[in-house]
Amino acid sequence: MIYWRIGMVTTIDKERKNVQFIQVEEEKGEIIKAIHYTDVQPSVQIGYKVLLNTTAVDLQLGSGGFHFVYMILNSNKHLNKGQSYNTNNSSKKNIGHIMKLRYTPQQRAVLACEETDSPTHSMFLENKNLEGTPVLIGELHSMLPILCSWMQYKQNHEKVSKKLKIGYVMSEGGALPISFSEHVAQLKRLNWIDGTITYGHSYGGDIEAVNKFTALIAAKHILQADIIIVLMGPGIVGTGTKLGHTGIEAGEIANAVSILEGIPIMTPRISFQRKRDRHKGISHHVLTTLSDIVLQNARVPIPFNLPKEYKDHIQQQLDDYHLYKKHTISFYTELHVKEVQKSVELYPFEIKSMGMELHDDPYFFLGVCCAAQEALNVVNRE
């Protein structure tokens, strides 16, 4: 089921690489927000008539309240038969032949790092691995700026002589176009991440990859990342069931990291402010992933500078799910919320996770920073 509306562009609020944020007056006169991707379509202008996919908002779901432009109905930029449109002005020689969003009207060709025409093709004929690189794995996109802020803060505080290279791999569990992410755009502008990789049907990264294994290898050997972060794009999917959520992919990613001889570090999702009991303490998503999906040992950093009742609750969860025997649990008592606040203040944009900021849900932010510190500890020991 898809809900459609037709409207006219009235305002272009902002634009960045491959995306426009616009306002559209639909046929009944309502002004609505929309997103238009410009990687494979021309930019819209005020007065353009557009066809919108309004499904998520009409069903009162996510997407930030935005509709999405599916087609421009009256642009002066007509495409002739056999003509292509792309913002990179790529020649047919280097467009690539790997299709993303396959067998849909929106399928597009990318040059994947593994394919024959790629300059890095030969690398994937070798037996490459991660060589002990720490890989931060989590289930929420909002963890990305928190992880990066903490690592930037610690590098500034410790005045390191050589800046760490951070590679971000975006999975396909949330938004598929990386250009949807405001955080990715800003972190790249700040040079807090050194490159991005999209795999599967996610697309738009600096490097395109076919699957999670080759994406990880690309992060290590093409981006030459000292620390790799793997998270989905904005918009986790959940059903209120044990396994029916896209955060479960974190377990598959951890398994891939272990197979490739990296160090999987699971970023905990911890909260004592959520109304739903299943997300109290360590979220049931993370507990299930660690107990049932992750097959080999992973590092699980846990904040422990908490009230006693919260520490007791977390320890009981770890015991109930038998995680002490399966994984390496590290309790961080030296990290404080005040220091976390200093780190996120370096980031010049708002950070919210599931609608909550640091002052609303401090232990969520604290847990994420513990994971970032664990990765830094691994690198510092090398």
From TrEMBL:
This is DUF3866 family protein. It comes from Chengkuizengella marina. The lineage of its organism: Bacteria, Bacillati, Bacillota, Bacilli, Bacillales.
